[in-house]
């Protein structure tokens, strides 16, 4: 019997977080390359596999019928040997407020290249700190994937705010034989801008103050400001979403309420990020740059103009190159613009 040859991945490289693990899982299934990752999330306050990461591992295991060792809470290393991704009906329950959108990232691209369609139900957090909110999928990412030949739709069944969670999203994936490349160098004309303050179990004035801050700092018209109370039963939670819809791309910036953080500070977090994006005059923001790398790597080609790449993005490039040997070039064009070329 042949001995499995594992690609060795250092989980502490670069930003040393969960992205190293999630991308390695997706790339492993795509390339059919087994890997061993050590020092998982070594640079985090609670290193090792947590509930969200363990769900991502088990989701990857399920869709590829993989052989896995080390998949327990707190584990600092993992061995993963995949088979081909199989489309089907899957349910993934994080069991905490861990991000459903991050778990989805792990299996989305392998399932896009599977032979049969997939229907996914993911339970956990839908609006978290340090993770894309659900609306990011439907407004920002999926329209760009559609340009690459992908058919992916998602619905928000239940909201899941931190710390209670309890949210649910449903995702339908139609497989595509080949992912097309994408070139995104201009954002085009601004078509629409909107602020949404989602709130549940918290006094309404919190959302009203967030929207007032948006009006004050961005000078948006009242028609752009949406107060959106969420039905009770989802615990307590609040998130401010700022949407920019351009001819070629949409972007989303968010601020999540946290204990001890004033409404104005929540709003300011999203406002500052939006203003930095607008000032850079690029189509692809910091987080979208990170999100686009994996599908472009699967396509084998692509190019986009973005802001200075984050450590997250640089680490992502390293992981992709370790699995695929694919050239990823980052070129500074101006003081605030960077051109990233894949393939």
UniProtKB/TrEMBL annotation:
Q: What class of enzyme is it?
A: ligase
Q: What is its EC number?
A: 6.5.1.4
**Which family does the record claim for this protein?**
Belongs to the RNA 3'-terminal cyclase family. Type 1 subfamily.
| Superkingdom of the source species | Bacteria
- SUPFAM superfamilies (alphabetical): EPT/RTPC-like, RNA 3'-terminal phosphate cyclase, RPTC, insert domain
Which GO terms fall under biological process for this protein? RNA processing
- Write down what this protein is called: RNA 3'-terminal phosphate cyclase
The record's Gene3D superfamilies line, in alphabetical order, gives: RNA 3'-terminal phosphate cyclase domain, RNA 3'-terminal phosphate cyclase, insert domain
Q: What is any one of the record's Gene Ontology cellular component terms?
A: cytoplasm
Q: Where does ATP bind?
A: 105, 287-291
Q: Which Pfam families match?
A: RTC, RTC_insert
Name all RNA 3'-terminal phosphate cyclase domain ranges.
14-330
Q: What does this protein do?
A: Catalyzes the conversion of 3'-phosphate to a 2',3'-cyclic phosphodiester at the end of RNA. The mechanism of action of the enzyme occurs in 3 steps: (A) adenylation of the enzyme by ATP; (B) transfer of adenylate to an RNA-N3'P to produce RNA-N3'PP5'A; (C) and attack of the adjacent 2'-hydroxyl on the 3'-phosphorus in the diester linkage to produce the cyclic end product. The biological role of this enzyme is unknown but it is likely to function in some aspects of cellular RNA processing.
* Species of origin: Beggiatoa leptomitoformis
Reactions catalysed, semicolon-separated, are: a 3'-end 3'-phospho-ribonucleotide-RNA + ATP = a 3'-end 2',3'-cyclophospho-ribonucleotide-RNA + AMP + diphosphate
Q: Name one GO molecular function term.
A: RNA-3'-phosphate cyclase activity
Q: Where is the active site?
A: 312
Keyword list (alphabetical) reads: ATP-binding, Cytoplasm, Ligase, Nucleotide-binding
What InterPro entries has UniProt attached to this entry?
A: RNA3'-term_phos_cycl_insert, RNA3'_phos_cyclase_dom, RNA3'_phos_cyclase_dom_sf, RNA3'_term_phos_cyc, RNA3'_term_phos_cyc_type_1, RNA3'P_cycl/enolpyr_Trfase_a/b, RPTC_insert
Q: How far does the signal peptide extend, from start to end residue? A: none
The record's subcellular location field reads:
Cytoplasm
Location of the RNA 3'-terminal phosphate cyclase insert domain: 186-277
């Amino acid at each position: 019997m042949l001995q499995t040859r594992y690609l060795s991945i250092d989980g502490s490289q670069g930003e040393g977080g969960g992205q190293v693990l999630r991308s390695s899982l997706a790339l492993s299934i795509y390339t059919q390359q087994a890997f061993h990752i050590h020092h998982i999330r070594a640079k985090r306050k609670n290193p090792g596999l947590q509930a969200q990461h363990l769900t991502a591992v088990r989701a990857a295991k399920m869709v590829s019928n993989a052989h896995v060792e080390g998949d327990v809470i707190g584990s600092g290393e993992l061995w993963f040997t995949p088979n081909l991704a199989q489309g089907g009906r899957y349910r993934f329950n994080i069991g905490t407020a861990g991000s459903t959108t991050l778990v989805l990232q792990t299996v989305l691209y392998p399932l896009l290249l599977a032979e049969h369609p997939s229907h996914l139900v993911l339970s956990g957090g839908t609006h978290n700190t340090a993770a894309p909110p659900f609306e990011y999928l439907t407004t920002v990412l999926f329209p760009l994937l559609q340009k690459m030949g992908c058919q992916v739709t998602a619905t928000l069944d239940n909201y899941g705010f931190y710390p209670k969670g309890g949210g649910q999203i449903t995702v339908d994936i139609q497989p595509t034989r080949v992912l097309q490349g994408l070139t995104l160098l201009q954002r085009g004309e601004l078509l629409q801008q909107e602020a949404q303050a989602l709130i549940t179990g918290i006094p309404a004035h919190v959302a009203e103050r967030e929207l007032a801050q948006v009006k004050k700092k961005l000078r948006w018209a009242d028609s752009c400001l949406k107060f959106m109370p969420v039905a009770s039963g989802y615990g307590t939670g609040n998130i401010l979403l700022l949407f920019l819809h351009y001819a070629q791309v949409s972007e989303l910036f968010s601020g999540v309420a946290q204990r001890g953080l004033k409404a104005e500070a929540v709003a300011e977090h999203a406002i500052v990020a939006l203003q930095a994006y607008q000032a850079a005059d690029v189509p692809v923001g910091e987080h979208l740059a990170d999100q686009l790398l994996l599908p472009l790597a699967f396509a084998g080609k692509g190019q986009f103009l973005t802001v200075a790449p984050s450590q997250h993005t640089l680490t992502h490039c390293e992981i992709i190159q370790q699995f695929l040997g694919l050239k990823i070039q980052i070129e500074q064009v101006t003081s605030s613009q960077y051109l990233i070329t894949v393939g």
